[in-house]
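re the bet — no i am not wrong, look at it urself. input seq straight from the record:
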Amino acid sequence: MTLVELEREYLALRQQSEAVRSYLDIPSKNKQLAVIEETIADPGFWNNQEASQKVMQERKRLEAFVAQDRSVSTLVSDIDTLFELGREGEDIGAELAREFDKLRKLVEHLETNMLLSGENDHCGAIVTIHPGAGGTESQDWAEMLLRMYLRWSERNGFSAAVTDRLEGEGAGIKSATVEIDGENCFGLLQSEIGVHRLVRISPFDANARRHTSFASVFVIPLIDDDVKIDIKTEDIRIDVFRASGAGGQHVNRTESAVRFTHIPTGIVVQCQNERSQHKNRAAALKQLRARLYEYEMDKRRAAEKKLEDSKADANFGSQIRSYVLAPYRMVKDLRSRYSVGDVDRLLDGDMEDMLHAYLVWKKTGKTFGETSKDDLAD
């Protein structure tokens, strides 16, 4: 690219960054931070630990927005300086490419947050994975998806805990539930609800034939503790049992795993990752509250398309995304039409571009490559 062409591309990116910075509304956030600082300075602030922790979390969230705005401003200034050097004849190609990439990724990250406006989008998420048609192949595929979400959580600094895991026969998992706690986790992971299809040369086939595997993913919000859900003791059947799989003698010899069945709705949750039955009870109760909250929200949104509609049979013709490892390598989302050739990077947790494309499609109805920046600002 010539310097003129680079400047033209930069102009579009800069306009995009200005629109994002306008959305951030930093002056308003600075005012909110000033109020929070006054609250923290109150001598009785730490008397209520639960309330004070929420205030500190809100301060951290606002400070992150301010820091991101500062980063955008700094990158724009640095790129402006590089162009000035380029006009004077200096070789700025490599450094300019690096700064462009930083600015593009930061702006896309902030745009993704702009697209999250649902009631529970800010919440953490409870992700449940089940293998579908394909036997051992699909069980292994379900474990690969579990690893992808755990790595995504790690890359983004979110806390993740596998609360339930049922090992497969020979390989993989029969089911798994993971709690991912972080800003906007539920809003981001809504794109994962549905059936995921894998095509690859089977590592379990001695004849090295291609196999197709399926796994279904469902996501519900990890609701805050201050949301009141009335759960009657007589409506719950509690079963305790020994945890399956690895975990040491204590886990395998004691009935530490817990299963809650909510009789009126038929909702079942279980937790077996902790050594203590008391801790497993607490985790299972938290999941049950989240499931019941989503159940009630679904009833209130009866006129709309419910999240459960995305839980199609894990089989041919019902997938939302295809992961092809042979004969070529590509991952394609069948809703947003976004595709990526670096399959290993995606399976290693680098999901940001895929999530962003889905959110754009959900907001605008347009597939990847069709959406203008004006659509995002509507």
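see?? The longest strand covers residues 210-222. told u. also Residues 125 and 221 are 5 Å apart (CA to CA). so pay up
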